[in-house]
Specification:
Blueprint lengths: L2 H11 L4 E7 L5 E6 L1 H7 L11 E2 H4 L2 H17 L3 E9 L3 E13 L7 E10 L1 H23 L3 E5 L5 E4 L1 H7 L3 H4 L13 H13 L4 E3 L6 E4 L5 E13 L2 E10 L1 H15 L9 H12 L5 E8 L2 H8 L1 H19 L4 E6 L2 E7 L3 H16 L17 E7 L7 H17 L5 E3 L1
Parallel strand pairs: 16-17
Antiparallel strand pairs: 1-2, 1-6, 2-3, 4-5, 5-6, 7-8, 7-12, 9-11, 10-11, 11-12, 13-15, 13-16, 14-15
Helix pairs in contact: 11-12, 12-13
Length: about 425
């Protein structure tokens, strides 16, 4: 071994990292004139023993790693540009180790400034790669759970731009994740809620609460790609990532639930036979109307001699009379008030913001419509069932708040109409 080679070997042995010098002969084959013990330990190669350096490159590098290593060396020799890459080596003693290898070309001016050798330095990154692998596994698991979730999951950054949009969110809103990543969350919020959304997020950001259910409003809606509104239930949470807040929303489609709730609500407020509002709904409207100072008129009516109708034509025909009355009255009252079944053959009409003259006019049209059979009907067996109605009309006094007293007055007006000959309208 020459003095220069000895000095070179002493130099590489003194370096803590894995180090080797690679040259190239006239035939283009790579050889190693010097490397330290760390390089042997890295590749699992054997020291030169009695024969010494230089060593054939292929004798030091395992067969499974040679092709990539050779390609990197060849590119570095040809381009003269330093390079880095990572390789794994399987060692019998202690398994797989990862290394980051740096290639730095050496030139000699006396050889035309061509690259003569390449210095290889290796730093072990096994711990980092294992950590990255665990992180990748955790990320994959997280992604699998998120994508398999039944509920939509959306994450936004501090600027309220979307950073995560799972498969359920795609199905719910009609967008692909690739279309929504980086987009403002406002694209999924219908008006008029958009203008208030930022303030809600800022308020939540300042709150010590880390997660909560968004149920402070009666209903929450999302905006589908086609422009339709989606009733949803939302739970939100926040997390601090490197000093910046991220917000995650778990969004559940509750359209079926809302439809069922609306059905239950309608059933609770609706008379089963006629489809009109029931007594409960009428009283609620009355309570709300009496809280204001606006005009309020009420009609109370019933069918004249209804028992005779049932006795003559049967109870099924009596039910038909009630239903036809409901249809005719709904057409007369229209959007000006609430038409409700009070019970039996008695009905109520609440007319908010209407005075006595307007209320009496509606009552007269209603009475005439029924008396003249001026409505569409198809009586059982094709036989017409004539009937009439009597109506009492009252309007609230300016300071009147007592609903029971108010309803008693309208009942008295109805009694007056019946006592005065029926098929008539009387005021009270």
């Amino acid at each position: 071994m020459s003095e220069w080679t000895n000095r070179l070997q002493e130099f590489v042995d003194s370096i803590a990292a894995s180090v080797a010098l690679v040259g190239r002969d006239a035939a283009g084959s790579f050889f190693v004139p010097a490397c330290n013990q760390s390089f042997f330990a890295m590749t699992g190669g054997r020291p030169p023993g009695a024969y010494g350096f230089p060593l054939a490159f292929d004798s030091l590098i395992p067969s499974y790693a040679r092709h990539e290593f050779r390609e990197k060396l060849r590119d570095c020799f040809e381009s003269g540009i330093a390079d880095e890459f990572e390789q794994a080596y399987d060692l019998v003693a202690d398994g797989t180790h990862w290394w980051r290898l740096s290639l730095k070309p050496f030139r000699h001016t006396d050889a035309g400034n061509a690259v003569q050798e390449i210095l290889i330095t290796g730093l072990e990154i096994t711990a980092k790669m294992e950590l990255m692998n665990q992180l990748q596994i955790s990320t994959s698991r997280f992604r699998s759970v998120v994508d398999a979730a039944y509920d939509a999951i959306i994450t936004i950054d501090q600027e309220h731009n979307i950073t995560l949009f799972n498969r359920a969110a795609e199905n719910l809103f009609g967008y692909e994740a690739s279309e929504m990543i980086g987009q403002p969350l406002l694209r999924l919020i219908p008006e008029p809620h958009r203008s208030r959304h930022d303030s809600y997020v800022h308020q939540f950001a300042r709150s010590p609460v880390m997660s909560r259910q968004m149920n402070e409003r009666a209903r929450i809606y999302g905006l589908h790609r086609d422009g339709s509104r989606l009733p949803v239930e939302i739970a939100i949470s926040k997390i601090n990532v490197n000093g910046l807040l991220e917000f995650t929303a778990i969004i559940r489609d509750i359209e079926d639930r809302m439809r069922l709730m609306d059905l239950f609500q309608k059933e609770a407020e609706t008379d089963e036979l006629t489809g009109l509002a029931n007594r409960r709904e009428f009283l609620e409207v009355m309570e709300n109307s009496l809280r204001s100072d606006d005009d309020l008129s009420v009609l109370m009516l019933d069918i004249d001699f209804f028992k005779k109708v049932n006795d003559t034509y049967g109870h099924d025909a009596g039910d038909e009379v009630l239903k036809y009355l409901a249809k005719a009255g709904t057409a007369v009252v229209g959007a000006s008030g609430l038409f409700a079944r009070w019970g039996g053959e008695e009905f109520m009409v609440a007319l908010p913001k209407m005075g006595l003259d307007g209320a009496r006019s509606i009552a007269e049209r209603f009475r005439a419509t029924i008396a003249d059979q001026n409505f569409k009907y198809d009586w059982p067996d094709g036989k017409a069932i004539p009937f009439t109605i009597s109506i009492g009309v009252v309007t609230r006094a300016s300071d009147e708040r007592d609903m029971l007293a108010f309803l008693k007055r309208v009942d008295q007006a109805l009694y007056k109409a019946k006592e005065s000959g029926r098929n008539r309208v009387e005021t009270g």
